[in-house]
Design brief:
The structure is a single chain. 26% of the residues lie in helices and 19% in strands. By secondary structure, the protein is an alpha+beta fold. It folds into three domains: 1-111 and 252-269, Phosphorylase Kinase, domain 1 (2-Layer Sandwich); 131-216, Transferase(Phosphotransferase) domain 1 (Transferase(Phosphotransferase), domain 1); 276-445, Roll (PH-domain like), CATH 2.30.29. Strands 8, 9, 10, 11, 12, 13, 14, 15 and 16 form a nine-stranded antiparallel beta sheet that branches. Strands 1-2-3 form a three-stranded antiparallel beta sheet. Strands 4-5 form a two-stranded antiparallel sheet. Strand 8 (307-308) and strand 9 (315-317) form a beta hairpin. Helix 4 (146-162) runs antiparallel to helix 6. The longest helix has 23 residues, at 423-445.
């Protein structure tokens, strides 16, 4: 996009690009690195699944985002270069990117509302947003205003300092109740300047938030001592403070880094991995075993009925197995499963790849739910056990959307993303193990 009124360039096709690694994931889309084959230029490409968009009735959001981004030209907002097909009221950290100069790039305008500068309309009346960052006026009055973005800014500043959003609970309803009642706490050692700014932004009354028109506009916000080292006039020309996250070195010409379009499509279609002649499956699954009339042979012949969602990297067990079947499953795991070395001889009940997020960055991990119970996570590249999510009666899983889920523990919340979109299956299995363990314990105590 060359100017404020420039339209996205047309005529591109998926075949014009090589697709690389996943950069980020949202509720309805996945962003991947793409290199244009003709020019070698790299782009962040947002891919939306048409079937899912239609199912969720979100086509209007896609169109609105395209139209809004086509009309924007600002150094701190992501540029739209082109759109093609084949087959801000949501301000949150996931929608704030960093470019090669480490300047912010605001993205994802699917829930934005465009207001005319000469219009009397100053509120949007549709309910959109992410639960943790929704402003109270959207919950109580069913309308949002420009000051709602200031509430989102307060939530973001809190999260960047504390590591978690201020309003957290087991489900969206409870989060909304905390927002309406302004129930949140600052952790120990929260920076005093940041605390003062957050308190002035997280006000229930939109007209009392620092930066809103009723409070004098953006100048008082810019003048807050939290921003005392910032020179606002030429901010986009300045060199941002140095940020050096740990990221593995990646060569531009590495073919493992860039794939082809068919490989990319397979990720979003949840297709099974094609097994080559050299691939030895972890188990041989039979989803519809033939009943065996001989009880003595039944555990051995029907062992496959307990294994579900099989590929070379993930599977799930039905927990209703006998002691004999468990013995046989553990024998197979010990001899065939490369992840067995990390689980201390505990039977793996579910495993699969997840992106484990900490701060602004995520790392791919192999998550292993086992008897014990245990939740191990392993670096799949270096084959190193990185840690374990501590299990306790207070552990609680929560699915945020079809890809993202949390595991809440007394001292920390683990932020996980399932690239295959089966967050609910992870939560259901963790909850099933939890109920089996603690219901059994409770019953034995009775």
């Amino acid at each position: 996009m060359e100017g404020p009124q420039a339209s996205p360039k047309l005529g591109k096709q998926p075949e014009d690009f090589k697709f690389g690694r996943i950069l980020g994931e949202g509720s309805y889309s996945t962003v991947v690195l793409a290199r244009e084959q003709a020019t070698g230029k790299e782009y962040a490409m947002k891919i939306l699944e048409k079937m899912h968009i239609r199912k969720e009735n979100k086509a209007h959001c896609v169109t609105r985002e395209r139209d809004i981004m086509s009309s924007l030209d600002h150094p701190f907002i992501v540029k739209l270069y082109f759109t093609f097909q084949d087959v801000k009221r949501d301000l949150k950290p996931e929608n704030i990117l960093l470019n090669e100069d480490m300047h912010i790039q605001i993205t994802d305008f699917g829930t934005a509302k465009q207001l005319s500068s000469d219009s009397t309309q100053n509120r949007a009346n549709s309910f959109v947003g992410t639960a943790e960052y929704v402003s109270p006026e959207l919950l109580t009055q069913k309308s949002a205003c420009k000051s709602s973005d200031l509430w989102g800014l307060g939530c973001i500043i809190y999260q960047l300092v504390a590591g978690l959003p201020p309003f957290r609970a087991g489900n969206d309803y409870l989060k909304f109740q905390k927002i309406i009642k302004l129930e949140y706490e600052f952790p120990d050692k929260f920076f005093p300047n940041a605390k003062d700014l957050v308190e002035q932004l997280l006000c229930l009354d939109p007209s009392n938030r620092l930066g809103c028109e009723e409070m004098g506009g953006y100048n008082p916000l810019r003048a807050h001592f939290f921003f005392e080292a910032v020179t606002w006039e030429n901010l986009h020309l300045q060199t941002p403070p140095k940020l050096t996250p740990y990221l593995p070195a990646m060569a531009e010409d590495d073919e493992d880094y860039y794939g082809n379009y068919d490989d990319l499509l397979s990720q979003f279609s949840n297709m099974q991995v094609v097994q080559s002649s050299s691939f030895q499956p972890l188990f041989v699954a039979n989803p519809s075993p033939i009943p065996n009339s001989n009880p003595a042979q039944r555990p051995n012949s029907n062992i496959e009925q307990y294994i579900h969602d099989l590929d070379n990297n993930s599977f799930e067990l039905d927990l209703r197995f006998s002691t004999e079947v468990k013995r046989l499953l553990l024998e197979k795991q010990t001899s065939r499963n490369p992840w067995n070395q990390f689980v201390e001889n505990n039977l793996i009940l579910k495993m699969g790849p997840v992106d484990k997020r900490k701060g602004l960055f995520a790392r791919r991990r192999q998550l292993l739910l086992t008897e014990g119970p245990h939740l191990y996570y392993v670096d799949p590249v270096n084959k190193v056990l990185k840690g374990e999510i501590p299990w306790s009666p207070a552990l609680r899983p929560e699915a945020k959307n079809f890809k993202t889920f949390f595991v809440h523990t007394p001292n920390r919340t683990y932020y996980l993303m399932d690239p295959c979109g089966n967050a609910d299956k992870w939560c259901n299995k963790i909850q099933e193990v939890w109920q089996k363990i603690y219901n059994t314990h409770f019953n034995s105590c009775m």
